[in-house]
Each structure stands twice: as structure tokens, then as C-alpha cells.
Design a protein that fits this description.
The protein is of the alpha+beta class and 868 residues long. The chain is 34% helix and 21% strand. It binds one RNA strand of 85 nucleotides through helix 7, helix 10, strand 20, strand 21 and helix 17.
Length: 868
RNA sequence: GCGGGCGUGGUGGAACGGUAGACACAAGCGACUUAAAAUCGCUCGGGCUUGGCCCAUGCGGGUUCGACUCCCGCCGCCCGCACCA
């Protein structure tokens, strides 16, 4: 064997990467072809790429290269989601600067991505921490401010009283600051917010149009936006402090008002705050509630706690007994009015609460057909609440309005009308008790962050002029470089010269806003910036009109709600402020969410029983022992790769050992793309073997004596089927299935006894079909077999439909639904013919035992089922 | 806690409501070789009274001529929960 024959990736891959570069193949150009924009969620520059990145970008690259072969002008860009906390944490830990850390990480990761041979237009690359990017983001912010889409409002944050700094939710561990260990307090700050809830209705209704999004993502967004229809009304509180004579409540179950047994208000409710100031017991209860942290998760998981204020709430008209008013820790100030009434009989949380504080449990409805007994407290309802689905017909014992039997939804509708016009018999007047309202769970998006490494908010605070927007000609407002992280808190806040500026309006001394923007802002419009990454304005409308929308967006399911919702909001805001053309309000035509990459982890127990993880290379996997010590290890089959579990595989090692094509092929084979993918050393090894087998097969075929016989029926049929099925696999994001078909096709070529020309033709098609996945090997094979130009420039092959159908089909015969035999019939055999054949089958004759079949089901071309 | 998803051989997985296990990995056997590697070929869900029969798609029910697929209830794991990205 000469060196030329070997499948030497270290020679082949750089060679083709250089050739592609020199031909400038991946530059996205506007021309007469139809366009296709494929985008993978851009990475955070954490330091090194991991296999998850390889899988994500390989999927995008398969689509990009495939579409390019299909004649599209493809835009496939890459950038960096470069602002965020890790850079500041690194600066605090090792004294460097977030900027240096970030850009050096970007250099490293770009250097790691290039050997993968991705068809990316690198000329469009940017990082969100580039002043050229965030300056345009500041311009967007100013336009949104003018359009009324940004405003200031108070918001609650986690405050670390020792470090004197605001903490992110992930920095609060068990209610304590991660560095200081101090008990975290809630603090209210005035913050900037995007008016995303003003678009709630459109964001919800438009989900129906996103047909090429996963159903689960649309459902998650729908639930997140959370449209609810309910009633809003007031309880009167006679002995309340001044200004709190009424408690406004919102409920989605007004039909249960006659089962109310308490009124609950949030610890952050204005009434609670007033009482807190007067009563130390209330204050201590509220402060206890506030230690829970700010996440909804913490609040909902916590034990239900209440504090009886001693106040009594009265529903005007005297329809319900006066109720006690509790401050309760599970009521969120952000949702509805921050106050509710509790109906323990028909709500789990209210039930828990009532049991704990000995409140009445009054039944309103009952399963249909249950005994009608007017006992107020029945044993069953004391045990558990009755919470039927809203569309189930139930028996109302205490209907607010409407018939005795109705569904929950009908009862709610009746109850809403009742609240709007109650008729009181005693004085024979109609009065309005409340109103039917539609509310959304979606809250406005607080964007202020008390951190350095983010996009500065371009406003100035002036004593005389108030909040003054920066002038656009002053943008970008750059982050100062001369900052230190030796003390906690935001360095901008204590910067000697950056903070103090002249008011853009009156020129008097003023202070710059020192908060920066949430990094979700950066990632909410980068897809638009890629269409004109060097424009002097946020976007170029011509370029945006040509390239938008993103035809295929690919990323992790963890972004199903926030990132995608914020991007949908931003697209709308950009259309409204003239930065995107009409029709781009939904910026992502198709969305695909890929699974994680997992790897086995190897663990032993330390001397204190704590888990000790071992690197795969230190473990003798087949013997399940630590190689050096012989200690037995437990194998955890497949968990998410993480450094702490020592189960991380470095893509660079894989490329060095097997080449990029092996890494690319392996990450999309075997597992369906939407599911988690398990990296195994055996799997990678097997792929490398297969690819070198393809290379060897191509070499052999290229060498074979040429003959004139170009046609081979069997091979042509196999080729047509491969073209058809691989194309279908790629189009439907079934890369694992496409790969399986490529294995089959390779086997078919390898086993074929067809002439050299016929095999050359089949092999060229194989190269084309493999090109999106293993582009370097495909180019090499294509060249060996005299393919013209680059394989990725060759038009995608088409299957001859005539070769895809067989003349006969094999029909399985089931008896009572289980397969017992099969028959071979003509493709278009009629029912009578098939029936006759079936009844002749020995297995059928035996099963019938001389009798007649009860039923004979013939599904033409598919199956026969004999029911005996 | 709430919302969403997933669960099929020893392993990853395939299967318009229609032959469960395609295609691979691992394992075993064989060929080639002085030998090994590489390569090629064969076997490979479990059980049994093995020319055949029975049981099998997390568990328990249901719909259907027929269910991995649809419906209901559990169990386990994963994602998100608004300041991680």
C-alpha cells in the first residue's frame, strides 16, 4: 500500500479547507438564486468548544451544504454571545480583565471550530461585546424608548448585604450569597423594562402560524404567556389602615366564590407593607417570607405559610360571610393583583392552607351523580380537594349563577356575568360587583443589570432634566477599560470619570446610568445583525429584506421559552421602529431543538462516602476498575458532560486522532437529533473505520479497469433508493436515518458485482450524498472518480421515481393481529385475488379449522388480517 | 410545586395505527495470517417440549380486526420556571 492510498485525515482535511477558502465558497452573496438562511444558536465563549457545539454546528452545516447543493444562496454565519457573568467571575478569580478573557476565549474557540470544516461565512463574524455591535444595540434601545417600548419601574432583586451587590438567581444558594454566605435580602430597585406584555396577545396568537416549530415549544410558550379569563372585584375591609379600604382580587374561578374561606395577599402587597410598618409580628412574618429568594420555584416549593392579619374582608352585598385576611407566602405580587380569595374545596394549595390554619372547607361542586347532600363539610372534601377538568360536567351545589349541572367553563362564564350585574333580591337592584378581565401571566422584561460586562444603557440622569437619552451621535457609549474587580459590586458605579458626565440636554453635571443590559438583549437581535454585520445602523433594510427570515434555526431546548420569546418580541419592536421590514415579526420560520451530548461517568466512593469521579482514560472500562489502583468503579451510563463529573470529551482530541469527518459523522449518526446523544469511544472508533472503508472502496473502484458497461440495474435501483431516502432524511431532520441509509448504500456498492463504470457512477453519488456530513472525504472521493469541480457545487442528485417502486410486494398475513405467514403478490393485485391466496395458506387453513373467518381485513399493498 | 418532554435487545436506535428490533456498537464463532492487528464472512431479544410454540416496546388499565404509536392513571429520568447562558 502506498501512502496515497491511506485515509489520512491530517492531510486530506486541511487540503480541502484551504481549497474551499481559496474559492471563497461560503461567502453569502445576494444574487438571483433563492436564499436560504440557516442559523445555529451562537455560543457563549466559555473557553473551549465541546461536543455539544460540534453536534449543533454539524447539524446546521448539513442543512447549509445540502441547501447550497440544491441551488440556494445560503447564509450561514457565526458569532459570539460574549457578554455575561463568567467573564467577570474569571476577572475576580484571577485578576485579568473580562475583555481580555473573552476575546482570548473567542480566538481559541474559533481556532477549534475552523478544523471542523463548517461552511460558515466567517466574514460576517462578530461578538456582542464589540462596540460596533453593542453601539447599534444602544441605538435600538433609544428608538424603543421613543416608541414607548421601554420604561422604568420598581423591581425586586437579590441583595447580598455583605458584598453589597445584586446577585443572580444562580448565585443564591439556599437563600445565601454564594461568596459571602450572607442571608440574601430582597431589595427593590428602579429598573428598566421592555413592554413585552403589551404584545402578549399577538405573541400568543401568532404561535399558531409557526407550523415548522416543534409543537412542544409552542405549547411551552403558550403556557408561559398564560392567557386567562377571570373576574376582578374588591373586598371591603372596614378596619383597614387608611387607603386600604378595599382589596382588589383576581380569580380565574369566580364560580367558586361561595366556597371562599379566606382572602390572601402577597407579602409584597401594599397592604402587607403598610401593616408591616405598624406591627412587628407582621414585619417578622414578611421578612421570613422574603428570605425565600425571588424565584417562583422557591416560592412554590416552600411550605405554605400564612399570617392572620385579624382584618375581615367583606364581599359587598353580603353574598358571602366575612372572611379572614391572611398574608400568604405562596401569593405572587407579580401575578394578577397580588391578592386572591381561597376556595379550599377546589384548589390544592388553598386546601393545604385551610387544613394548616383550620379554615372552613365549603363545597361548591361535586362529581355528577354524587349524592346531593347539603352538608357544608363532607368527609371526602376534608381529605382532598375536588378539582375536575374545566370541560367536565359536574353538579353545582352552590352555583353562583346558571343551572345545577354545567362544566367548570360554563360556570365561570355565568359567574363572570353575575359579577358584572348582580341582582340583589332584598332591595331589588342590579349592581356591579366586578368585571370580567383577560390577564396574561407574562410579565414585562426587566433588563437592568448591576454589572460591568454588558451593554451600557445609553441614558443620563440629570437633576433638572430627569432621565435623558444619549444623543445617537455619541454612540457607542463604550465600556471603560480601566476597571478593577478587587471589590464586589459594579465597577461602573464607582468609576471616577466614566460615571460623571454633562447632561446631553442642559449641559449641567449629571450621572450616566451605570446599569448594563441583560445579556438576553444581545441575543434577541443578532440574527438580524448577521444580514448586514458592518452596517452603520442596526440593520440594513435591503439586506434584511433579502435574507430574513431565518429559514432554519437550530439550538437547545433549554431556550424554548425565554430566548425565543424575547427574540419574537424584538423582531416586532424592530419592525415597529423601522429596523426590520414588515413580515419579519416572526423571525424564525422553522425551529429545531437538538438534544444534549452525554457520556458515561466513572465514580468511586471517597473516604467520607462522597463521590469521586475518574477520567475515562484512567479507567479499565471492561473490568470496571480504576486502572492504577484496581478499585472497582460504578459506571453511570449516560449523563450530561461536565467538568466536575470528569466525563468531558474534547473535540480537539477526536479531530487529532480520527479527523473532523469522523467527529461530524458520529455526532449525527445513531441518535435522533432531537434526543440526547451518547458519546462512546467505541462508536467514534467504528465511524473512523467506516470512513476509511469508504475511502478504500473509492480507491479500489478508481483503480479498476475501465469498461464500457455503464448500466447495472440492481446498483441503479440501490442508488435511486439511497438518493431518495437520504434526501428525505436530511429534509426531515432525520440525520441518523440518512446515515443508516448511507451505510446500506455503501454495503450495496461494496458487494455489487457490477462493472467499473457502473460502480464509479454509484460511488460518485455516494460522495454527493455524504458531502453534507463528511465534506472532506466526499471531496476526496469525488476527485478520485473524476467528479467535476467541488462536490458541494455539484447539483444534488435526483432519484428516478420509476426505480423506486417494485413490481411485487410481500404481504404479511396476520391471524388475530399476529403475523403468521406472508405472501408475494403483484403490486396492484386486487382484493379478491389476495383473499383467495390468503385462504389457501396452510397457516390460515389450520387456524380456520374448516370454518369461515369472522372477518378478513385486506389493506392493499400493506397487510392482511384474518379474524377467526 | 407548576409547565413541557422522554422511556423499545447487553448498548445507541428503526418502525404512514399494519411483519417490533432497519442501520450500527459490543459480544461470540469462522476465514485469511507463522502470529497479531487490519480486513472479510456468519450468529446475536428472552423462554420452551425448537420443521414449531409462547412471552416481550417503563408499570397498570382502555379504544381497535390490529397499539411502540391513540386515550386514562402511575413510576423513573431530562428541560424550563423570568438576574446562568
Amino acid at each position: 500500500m502506498t501512502p496515497m492510498d491511506r485515509y489520512d485525515t491530517s492531510q486530506i482535511e486541511p487540503k480541502w479547507q484551504k481549497a474551499w477558502d481559496e474559492a471563497d465558497l461560503f461567502r453569502a452573496v445576494r444574487d438571483e438564486r433563492p436564499k436560504y438562511y440557516v442559523l445555529e444558536m451562537f455560543p457563549y465563549p466559555s473557553g473551549r468548544i465541546h461536543i455539544g457545539h460540534v453536534r449543533n454546528y454539524t447539524m446546521g452545516d448539513v442543512i447549509a451544504r445540502y441547501r447550497s447543493s440544491c441551488g440556494f444562496s445560503v447564509l450561514h454565519p457565526m458569532g459570539w454571545d460574549a457578554f455575561g457573568m463568567p467573564a467577570e467571575n474569571a476577572a475576580m478569580a484571577s485578576g485579568g480583565h473580562p475583555k481580555d478573557w473573552t476575546y482570548s476565549n473567542i480566538d481559541t474557540m474559533r481556532g477549534q471550530m475552523k478544523p471542523l470544516g463548517l461552511s460558515i461565512d466567517w466574514s460576517r463574524e462578530f461578538a456582542t461585546c464589540d462596540p460596533e455591535y453593542y453601539g447599534q444595540q444602544q441605538a435600538l434601545f433609544l428608538d424603543m424608548l421613543e416608541a414607548g417600548l421601554v420604561y422604568r419601574k420598581p423591581a425586586i432583586v437579590n441583595w447580598d448585604p455583605v458584598d453589597m451587590t445584586v446577585l443572580a438567581n444562580e448565585q443564591v444558594i439556599d437563600g445565601k450569597g454564594w461568596r459571602s454566605g450572607a442571608e440574601v435580602e430582597r431589595r427593590e430597585l428602579v429598573q428598566w423594562a421592555f413592554a413585552i406584555s403589551s404584545m402578549a396577545e399577538d405573541l400568543l396568537d401568532s404561535l399558531d402560524r409557526l407550523e415548522d416549530w416543534p409543537e412542544k415549544v409552542r405549547l411551552m410558550q403558550e403556557n408561559w404567556i398564560g392567557r386567562s379569563r377571570g373576574a376582578q372585584f374588591s373586598f371591603e375591609v372596614e378596619t383597614a389602615p387608611d387607603g386600604h379600604g378595599a382589596i382588589e382580587v383576581y380569580t380565574t374561578r369566580p364560580d367558586t366564590i361561595f366556597g371562599a374561606s379566606f382572602v390572601g395577599i402577597s407579602p409584597d402587597h401594599p397592604l402587607a407593607k403598610t401593616l408591616e410598618a405598624e406591627d412587628p409580628d407582621v414585619a417578622s412574618f414578611c421578612s421570613r417570607c422574603r428570605k425565600l429568594g425571588t424565584t417562583a420555584e422557591a416560592v412554590e416549593k416552600a411550605e405554605k405559610l400564612g399570617f392572620d392579619t385579624g382584618l375581615r374582608a367583606r364581599l359587598p352585598g353580603g353574598f358571602v360571610e366575612d372572611l379572614p385576611v391572611y398574608i400568604a407566602n405562596f401569593i405572587l405580587m407579580d401575578y394578577g393583583t397580588g391578592a386572591i380569595f381561597g376556595c379550599p374545596a377546589h384548589d390544592q394549595r388553598d386546601h393545604d392552607f385551610a387544613v394548616k390554619y383550620g379554615l372552613r372547607i365549603v363545597e361548591v361542586m361535586r362529581p355528577k351523580g354524587a349524592d346531593r347532600d347539603d352538608g357544608i363539610e363532607l368527609p371526602a372534601i376534608l381529605e382532598a380537594p375536588f378539582v375536575p377538568p374545566k370541560d367536565e360536567l359536574v353538579e353545582y351545589i352552590r352555583p353562583v349563577a346558571g343551572p345545577d349541572q354545567m362544566t367548570g367553563q360554563q360556570a365561570i362564564d355565568h359567574a363572570v356575568s353575575w359579577f358584572e350585574t348582580v341582582h340583589r333580591k332584598s332591595d331589588n337592584v342590579d349592581r356591579q360587583l366586578g368585571v370580567g378581565v383577560t390577564k396574561y401571566r407574562l410579565r414585562d422584561w426587566g433588563l437592568s443589570r448591576q454589572r460591568y460586562w454588558g451593554c451600557p444603557i445609553p441614558v443620563v440622569h440629570c437633576d433638572t432634566c430627569g432621565v435623558v437619552p444619549e444623543k445617537k451621535e455619541n454612540l457607542p457609549i463604550r465600556l471603560p477599560d480601566d476597571v478593577t474587580f478587587d471589590v464586589p459590586g459594579n465597577p461602573l458605579d464607582r468609576h471616577p470619570t466614566w460615571r460623571d458626565v454633562a447632561c446631553p440636554n442642559c449641559g449641567a453635571p449629571a450621572k450616566r446610568e451605570t446599569d448594563t443590559m441583560d445579556t438576553f438583549v444581545d441575543s434577541s437581535w443578532y440574527f438580524a445583525r448577521f444580514t448586514a454585520p458592518r452596517a452603520e445602523t442596526p440593520t440594513d433594510l435591503d439586506d434584511a429584506a433579502y435574507w430574513m427570515n431565518v429559514d432554519q434555526y437550530i439550538g437547545g431546548i433549554e431556550h424554548a421559552i425565554l430566548h425565543l420569546l424575547y427574540s419574537r418580541f424584538f423582531a416586532r419592536a424592530m419592525v415597529r421602529t423601522g429596523h426590520l421590514p414588515q413580515g419579519t415579526e416572526e423571525p424564525f420560520d422553522a425551529l429545531f431543538t437538538q438534544g444534549m451530548v452525554t457520556h458515561p461517568a466513572y465514580v468511586t466512593k471517597g473516604d467520607k462516602g462522597q463521590p469521586v469521579y475518574h477520567l475515562p482514560e484512567d479507567v479499565d472500562v471492561s473490568a470496571r476498575k480504576v486502572a492504577a489502583t484496581g478499585e472497582a468503579v460504578d459506571v453511570i451510563p449516560a449523563i450530561k458532560m461536565s467538568k466536575s463529573k470528569k466525563n468531558v470529551v474534547d473535540p480537539m482530541d477526536i479531530i487529532a486522532r480520527y479527523g473532523a469527518d469522523t467527529a461530524r459523522w458520529f455526532v449525527i449518526s445513531d441518535s435522533p437529533p432531537e434526543r440526547d446523544f451518547e458519546w462512546t469511544p467505541e462508536g467514534a472508533e467504528a465511524v473512523a473505520k467506516h470512513l476509511s472503508r469508504v475511502h478504500r472502496l473509492a480507491t479500489d473502484i478508481a483503480r479498476a479497469d475501465r469498461d464500457a458497461n455503464e448500466h447495472d440495474a440492481a446498483l441503479e435501483k440501490a442508488t435511486a433508493r439511497a438518493v431518495h431516502e437520504v434526501t428525505e432524511g436530511i429534509e426531515g431532520f432525520g440525520f441518523n436515518k440518512a446515515v443508516a441509509k448511507l451505510y446500506e448504500f455503501t454495503n450495496a456498492i461494496s458487494k455489487s458485482d457490477a462493472g467499473a463504470e457502473a460502480r464509479r457512477a454509484a460511488m460518485r453519488t455516494l460522495a454527493q450524498l455524504m458531502a453534507p456530513m463528511t465534506p472532506h472525504l466526499a471531496e476526496e472521493v469525488w476527485q478520485m472518480l473524476d467528479g467535476e469541480g467541488f462536490v458541494m457545487r455539484a447539483p444534488w442528485p435526483k432519484a428516478d421515481p420509476a426505480l423506486l417502486v417494485d413490481d411485487t410486494v410481500t404481504l404479511p398475513i396476520q391471524i388475530n393481529g399476529k403475523k403468521k405467514a406472508e405472501i408475494e403478490v403483484a403490486k396492484d393485485a386486487d382484493k379478491a385475488t389476495v383473499e383467495a391466496l390468503v385462504l389457501d395458506q396452510p397457516a390460515v387453513v389450520k387456524a380456520l379449522d374448516g370454518g369461515q373467518p369472522k372477518k378478513l381485513i385486506v389493506v392493499p399493498g400493506r397487510i392482511v388480517n384474518v379474524v377467526v
